[in-house]
Amino acid sequence: MILFATALLAADALPFAPPIDKPLVYRQTEDRIAPDGSAAHFTLTEEVRFTRDGTGYILTVRALSAEAQAPDAAAASFRAGMKPFIGIPVATRLSAAGEPGEVIDADATWQRVVQSIEQAAATASPPRNGIGPMLAGFRAMPAPAREAMLKGPAIALLGLSLPPLPEGGSGPLAETMDTPLGIPIACSGTVRRDTDRDGAIRYSADLSSDPDAARRIAAQTRTTGAPADAIAVQSLHEHRETSLSASSGLLLSSVSKFARIDPAAPGGERPVSQRGLMLVSQ
Questions:
Q1: β-strand partners of 175
Q2: The CATH number of 8-281 is which of 1.10.530, 2.30.230, 2.40.128, 1.10.3470?
Q3: Which of 41, 95, 156, 252 has its CA 20 to 30 A from that of 61?
Q4: What is the pLDDT of residues 96-135, one digit of tens each?
């Protein structure tokens, strides 16, 4: 999916005991903040269900709806882009510890997605520009890339494994981050673990990308037409707050605030987006 929200799961420190055969509803949100301070809001609602699979589990994610509060063109583009995925269940095998494995019937599931895109293209009014090349790209996508895209929602829920931390402890964290160039680059920072008053486990993380890396990527790709030195100030800083259930290990909420590192902006940063993933029904 498009939001790529990342939930942080410390598998070595928390149990993994999801509810079985019980539908859960998660909501992904993204607010894109324009330079003038205005924001466009996008929402994707998904149903999540865990079932037993031997000693492990099967996690099935099904997109229910996609909504947008944004300028007409942006809202229409978001809805059209998400429509082919609505209603298609994607099932991923999980280990007993919640680690994702293969997508079940990946080829057949991918074919359903492609057919849904074809149907949406055939019924679009007015016709959407660029649908032909997009369809060709989907049809030609290698199997590993297809599986990675299908598995995206499960990865968002289960996330990256954090080092086990004691209560009040902190440690280093390294990830990749989407840059304004649309290319993931390495970033690093710190993460701290605490317990909320309601007993949930909270991780607070601060991550920054490398300005030199952004400059090198800009110089190599030439995708924006902007000078490489101008792109350097677009390196990102992310502050993330993630809450997990202490009893099940499941994500309760995750909110990431992104800002561009810009010496000319107040405080040296300019907010660009906020992404969220929240359990809204269980």
A1: 187
A2: 2.30.230
A3: 41
A4: 988 899 999 999 999 998 888 888 777 766 666 666 777 7
Q: Which of 80, 94, 86 is nearest to 62 (CA)?
A: 86
CB 129 within 8 A of CB 99: no
- DSSP3 helix / strand / coil % (the chain, rounded to 5): 25, 40, 30
pLDDT band at 230 (very low <50, low <70, confident <90, very high): very low
The two tokens of residue 50 are: 């865990």
Contact 21, 110 (CB under 8 A): no
Residues 210 and 179: beta-carbon distance below 8 Å:
no
- pLDDT tens for 12-34 read 457 889 999 999 999 999 999 88
Read off the pLDDT of each residue in 25-52 and give the average, rounded to a whole number: 92
Which pair of tokens denotes residue 248?
Answer: 């099940």
| Average pLDDT score over the chain | 81
Domain ranges of the chain: 8-281
H or E stretch at 40:
strand 39-53
